C-alpha cells in the first residue's frame, strides 16, 4: 500500500509537466525592442532582425510545417507578399522545424519569403511563444509587427490563419499614416 501511495504521489507530480503550459510566458510588449535572432531559412541563408533595420518586419510564428492551419497561413502571406512589400514590410515565418522541413514546405507551396528554422527554440522563447502540450513543444501561432527602429509595433495573439495577413496589412497602413 505504501509503495502504491508513493507511485501515486510521483504520478501526481508528473501530470502538470505532461500538460505543460508556456515555457516562456513573457512576450515583448508594444513599444519594446524586438529581440534579435540569428536563424537559417529554407535555403540555409542566415537572417538577423538587425539585417532588416529600417524596414517593417512581419515576424509570424507558427506551430508546424505542412499542417492545415500553418499551410493556410503561409499561403495567405504568400498571396499577399507583394502588397506587404509594397507597404514596405518584409515577411519572415518562424517555427521550430528544421531547415530541411522548411525547404520542403516552401517548395511545395511556392513560398517567396524566408521561413526561419528555430530548432534551438531560443527565438520562440525570447518572443514568449514557446509552449508545450503533452510531449509536443511548438511555437504558438502569434505575429509581431516590428517597426523600422526594431520595436514591437503590434503583437497579434490568437491569430486566425486566414485573417492574419489582412490584419497586418490594415494595421501597417494605419501605423504608417499615424507616424507620417
Describe this entry's structure for a reader.
The chain is 37% helix and 22% strand. The protein is built from five helices and nine strands; from the N terminus they run H-E-E-E-H-E-H-E-H-E-E-E-E-H. It has 180 residues and is an alpha/beta fold. The protein has helices at residues 2-18, 68-86, 99-109, 122-126, 164-178; strands at 38-40, 46-48, 56-61, 89-95, 115-117, 130-133, 136-139, 142-146, 152-156. It has a single domain (19-178), classed as 3-Layer(aba) Sandwich (Glutaredoxin). It has a five-stranded mixed beta sheet with strand order 5-4-3-8-9.
Summarize the structure.
This protein has 180 residues and is an alpha/beta fold.
CATH architecture title: 3-Layer(aba) Sandwich
Shape: globular
Radius of gyration, whole Å: 18 Å
Structural class: alpha/beta
Unreliable sequence segments: 3-24
Helix content: 25-40%
Distance between the termini: 73 Å
The count of DSSP E runs of length 2 or more, i.e. the number of strands, is 9
**The CATH class:** Alpha Beta
Order of adjacent strands in the largest pleated sheet: 5-4-3-8-9
